[in-house]
Amino acid sequence: MSRENVLVSAEWAEQNLETPGVVFAEVDEDTTAYDGGHIPGAVKIDWKTELQDPVRRDFVDRQGFEKLLSAKGIGNDDTVILYGGNNNWFAAYAYWYFRLYGHDKVKLLDGGRKKWELDGRKLTTEVTERPGTSYTAQEPDTSIRAFRDEVVEAIGTKNLVDVRSPDEFSGKLLAPAHLPQEQAQRAGHIPSAINVPWSKAANEDGTFRGDDELREIYGEAGLDGSKATIAYCRIGERSSHTWFVLHELLGHEDVKNYDGSWTEYGSLVGVPIEVGAGK
Amino acid sequence: MSGCGAPQQTATLPANVDAGKEVVLTGRVVADGTPVAGAFVRLLDASGEFTAEVVSAETGDFRFFAAPGSWTVRALHRSGRGETAVTAEGPGIHELEIAVA
Prior knowledge:
The complex is a heterodimer.
Chain A: E1 7-8, H1 10-15, E2 22-28, H2 32-35, E3 43-46, H3 47-50, H4 62-72, E4 79-83, H5 85-100, E5 106-109, H6 112-118, H7 148-154, E6 159-162, H8 166-170, E7 194-195, H9 211-220, E8 229-232, H10 238-249, E9 255-257, H11 261-265
Parallel strand pairs in A: 1-5, 2-3, 2-4, 4-5, 6-7, 6-8, 8-9
Helix pairs in contact in A: 5-10
Chain B: E1 23-31, E2 34-35, E3 40-44, E4 50-55, E5 61-66, E6 69-77, E7 80-88, E8 92-99
Parallel strand pairs in B: 1-8
Antiparallel strand pairs in B: 1-2, 1-5, 3-4, 3-6, 6-7
Keywords (chain A): Repeat, Transferase
GO molecular function, one term (chain A): thiosulfate-cyanide sulfurtransferase activity
Domain Rhodanese (chain A): 18-125, 154-274
């Protein structure tokens, strides 16, 4: 897998804002970010209200995804460039959805909003209106999505990569530290998981580290390249970032994102939990 | 369910947060005494590892919910960078100021 197939630079993006067949989409949980200024021509996708099922805990189904993309004016032949705040966490999550529903022409803007803003590139408050399309999605590709039973079965057999911060992994914190810490689930991590925080894969400006550096980071952490891998975090968005690194940048073949992540696992009755720092 | 997205950064705590239980690290990013909006404020743990990141509000405000221990808070903005260290003994509000240059 080559980096050019899955990532674009801010320079490339700036030069292709008006290129036909290229659609920019900002994905955030907090849509006030888009409303306060976004990349010219970009449409907005709201992670919480548009990509999640409004009632049960799951993401939009195939028909829901088709309806959403059609309404956003995204066609099957368009190349979609995703970007967002939070170091591209939710953009990476959306990227994973696009792949899950069979959209191959999708890329991430390296560094997301953060790099764009640090570079002082142009933002606009003008809302983008694109003519509707009739988008067709594929059946979900579950070869990249892990569910709780296979996660329990993976203990001690597959690579389990916990991408949360060391303090969440050890059980000292229950959520990333910009959120209140009173949470329903138990603290700790899945036994046999290695802790490689998502942030190891990114530079401080939000761009991804180079392939050689990335290989070294996961190799040193004990990721066994001959085994299948499941990545998880708290709700599945930071682990999408790591899924992107392992599957899309480094080309590992069998990598799944466990989007149930700690908010599901840490609430399950009877499953084993380990606490304490990584080995 | 609340995701991991950064909530709005304000100087006052949301009503549902109990400052008697939470270790709150809150403060402002400033440059020459003026609040800096839109700075990327990152919380690092005692080993220097990333723990969270928020974007400072129009008023320069930022806030983290941490745990007792030693922390570094680093701000990155187009106009410069700065950092400060804090040791939180227990729950309560710990006020900080980060000057970027």
